Here is the input.
Amino acid sequence: MSFVQGPNGEQVIPIRIDGLALPVHDARLIPVESVSQCKVIHYAHSATPEIATLAADSSQRAFLKWKTSTHVQRRDLLLRTADIIDSWADRFVEVQIAETGCFEGWARFNVSNLTRGMREIASHISHMTTGELPPLEVPGSIVLVYKEPVGPVLVIPPWNAAMILSGRGMAAPIGAGCSVVLKASEMCPQTHHLIVQAYEEAGMPKGLINIVQAAREDATAVTEALIAHPSIRKVEFIGSAAVGRIIGQLSSKYLKPVLMELGGKAPAVVLKDADVKHAAGKIIQGMVMHHGQICMSTDRIVVVQDVAEELISQLKTALATTFAGKQGVAVSRKQAKRGQALLLRAQAAGARFIVGDASLNAEETSLTPTIVTDVKRTDEIFHEEIFSPAAILTVVKDEAEAIQVANDTTYGLNAAVHSRNVLNAIRVAQQIEAGQVHICETTGYDEQTLPIGGTKDSGWGRNNGKYGLAEFLEEKTISIHDPAVSKNRFGDEK
Here is the structure.
């Protein structure tokens, strides 16, 4: 199991370096509370900057060996680990539900989506690491362009898609030949440790993945110690734009490249020729899934006035029937109350609720799905990611205004366009500033063969399959010149 025994008999998620659990100190325990069980279910051991340094040192030692591994060794490790994760599916489901309060369906989706993603990454290792022989102008010369792993990678995943985002974050660097320091989320440390345990079960070399976590008050110092460490050569962060700015500033301070997938305020644009009933179902699905705690959740609804009344009616119907009670619970009471507060402050400033009332359940763990309109640019909810089963609805006069409203945000992760005219929908999609735009689908659509990432304040770089592998490879050029035929390229010698 992922646990060790704490000084007072507590179940504790340890820090693991070189495949071994570090001794637990009772003054550095992080309580992990389950919102579904309304209690602390276990603890995690919080790291220090000194421990972070040990993890990075270990990753460097492992990298020096792993970078010489063959594409077959890397591929087979990912495939064996994926098989083990699938065989532990029930265990992973139980742990995710306990730590994050998600529905069983979301937990099982995390398992299957991760293992499909790992197999997709594995299938691309051989050709993505293949070098090139570029054509040259200089006679008697050959240039070899190698694809090499960047080095040890710091991966900082969130809790909301606990398996997908952490597992993907490890699989691509390992497939490229890198080692990983995983800074597990303090919200779901057992889930993250269990994935690493699957790698260990599959025969992962010691130190290839070292895993630490930190309490909120320790996180800044631990993270900087890792980013500053000379062995860490790249950072992957998935989380909020606010924290992304901090990670970006730290990484630039130490000249470390960053792959970041940040928040979003995904718009679903409904044009006048849309299948309105279908659009409403996809919008509500994108709004309530996992209590709206997905960076790709439908945060805004932009509808052309011709079909606005019909859409609102269909949204109400979808919520009352297909998606009744499907919003689940928030990861914490604090998160549920945050979403409610955003809505109530907007209402106090003149916005209107047209669906739902922003109320919480008796346990204050779940927000009633709510759609608000008449939101002003000065309202906090206009700019902030809601991260709850709620959305802003804006009625526009035509397609041109719909595009303008969709782009009126600092974010640019996902979007959707609803129209029966595919060519028109593509034309609109091309004008929306987002990394992914989905036609007649939820804003949260994703496949392992597709690149995923953001524009604007939603980050940079791309994940999934070959696109994720490319983020952790860099080119090295080696040129060879025959002295018998090479000549001065810079003019005749004097």
Observations:
- The first helix runs from residue 49 to 66.
- The domain at 266-439 is CATH 3.40.309.10 (Aldehyde Dehydrogenase; Chain A, domain 2).
